[in-house]
Amino acid sequence: MIIADSFNLELLFSTHSIPIKYVDLDNSSNSVIDLMFLQSRSTQLNSHFIYSDLQLSLDHVPLSVLIAISDEDIVSYKHSIVKNSKEEISFINDVLCAIKSINISDLSDSNKLEKATISLTSRIEHAWKANLKQVKITKHSKSWWNEEYNCILSNYRTTRSLENW
Fold this sequence. Notes:
alpha+beta, 2 domains, three-stranded mixed beta sheet, 4 helices, 9 strands
């Protein structure tokens, strides 16, 4: 129980009041205790079922627990810059300008080098934030899909021609 508790698990209690200990095949001893541990303080995971009628030739029986799974949309977003987009071109130009503007005339000690590095990092982060796009990730998202495919699909939907498909 100490080990289970260290993993934030609790012993579940059966919804049936039947034994969870079964005699082994040669009837000499009770050898298996069927237990189930699940996450502590979970309101949906509060009891399990013991299927004593499915014991067969084993000295233990199947256990199950019902877990309600709701059909919900988990909205996830990522920040990215689409390849070959105007934002990518702008980002690259901003980074190039940041690199060109670094004052490297005097990097004689580690403090000056660190200051130049922090300045460059800050300008690259600013360029990223200025050009990124927030993309909603869904079960239909495709990492390979880009603006070119959007245009092709739009063209097909307009013409409905097999050539454009």
